[in-house]
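Query structure, 299 tokens:
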């Protein structure tokens, strides 16, 4: 009799704990997925472009749902006016699920100085010094806000536009381009996943049975199939420890864009060090020269 009571009590306890953990997981899923506080200090300190000798222009954008987000806008400079900026492509660059735009300034510096692009980057809502809390719907609004800013900018609206995203930023780029394809000349994604639901069993194995709780779906595999005409460059680190490289391969396979698909893999690259691999910027530069720059009016 005693023993059955103990067993019953244990079962009640286990059920209560499971329910509690499940509820907590549901409520805090966004904090888990959007690691805006990592690395430490990411929510209070954001590096400035001037620290990298880049044009130091921060623009505060107001989203359609009333959130103030921060962006850096770096426009090519020419003593003789705006010609250089207008001839240069503009890259709209989306970061991953950690950190803020300041961490990516070394990459922006190469885009700006070596590749000659105008650069627009942002810290999504709830990242860096941007207001709000991150979630899928909100990040999509942020991306659209940045695009609308470019489309209304006196110089940038005349430029050819490249959308680029790393990891989660790639899923965001795919979403944005799939809804605004006629505004873009090209798309670049790096170490992106097929969807959050397909990624979780690999990235957070302990939660694989709770995937159904996750309402942040990020269906990149669907978005890429809605991109029909523009060229896509896919950058894949084969030693990616977070997103299995098979996800990128599959995105490549299911894309049916008529503009051209370019695959570039890095045998020693991991999830967030692809930009340090040999050939990374060359792949982006070559892709830009082939598909984006219009040099026909130059002598
Ligand atoms: C997703 O779940 C969170 C709870 O963590 C909730 O706040 C949010 O509104 C949900 N989003 C959608 C789109 O259902
Ligand atoms: C990858 O690493 C191996 C072992 O260190 C090295 O031999 C190889 O050259 C590297 N490959 C590239 C493309 O850097
Ligand atoms: C990149 O990934 C490595 C290993 O996964 C980690 O130690 C490092 O802190 C990460 N950096 C950023 C900025 O996320």
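Result returned for the query:
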């Amino acid at each position: 009799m005693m023993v059955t009571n103990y067993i019953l009590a244990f079962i009640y306890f286990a059920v209560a704990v499971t329910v509690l953990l499940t509820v907590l997981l549901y409520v805090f899923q966004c904090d888990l997925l959007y690691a805006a506080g990592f690395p430490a200090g990411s929510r209070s300190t954001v590096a400035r472009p001037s620290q990298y000798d880049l044009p130091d222009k921060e623009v505060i954008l107001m989203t359609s749902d009333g959130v103030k987000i921060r962006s850096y806008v770096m426009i090519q400079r020419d003593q003789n006016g705006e010609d250089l900026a207008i001839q240069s492509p503009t890259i709209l660059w989306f970061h991953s699920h950690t950190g803020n735009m300041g961490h990516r300034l070394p990459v922006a510096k190469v885009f700006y100085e070596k590749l000659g692009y105008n650069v627009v980057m942002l810290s999504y809502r709830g990242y860096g010094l941007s207001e709000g809390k991150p979630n899928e719907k909100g990040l999509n609004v942020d991306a659209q806000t940045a695009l609308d800013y470019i489309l209304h900018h006196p110089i940038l609206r005349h430029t050819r536009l490249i959308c680029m995203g790393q990891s989660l930023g790639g899923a965001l780029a795919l979403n944005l381009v799939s809804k605004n394809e006629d505004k873009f000349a090209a798309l670049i994604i790096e170490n992106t996943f097929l969807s959050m639901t397909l990624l979780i069993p690999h990235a957070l194995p302990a939660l694989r049975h709770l995937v159904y709780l996750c309402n942040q779906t990020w269906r990149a595999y669907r978005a890429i199939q809605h991109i029909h005409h523009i060229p896509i460059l896919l950058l894949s680190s084969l030693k990616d420890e977070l997103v299995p490289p098979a996800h990128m391969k599959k995105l490549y396979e299911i894309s049916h864009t008529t503009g051209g698909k370019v695959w570039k893999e890095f045998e020693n690259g991991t999830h967030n060090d692809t930009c340090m691999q040999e050939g990374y910027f060359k792949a982006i530069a070559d892709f830009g020269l082939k598909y984006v720059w219009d040099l026909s009016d130059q002598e």
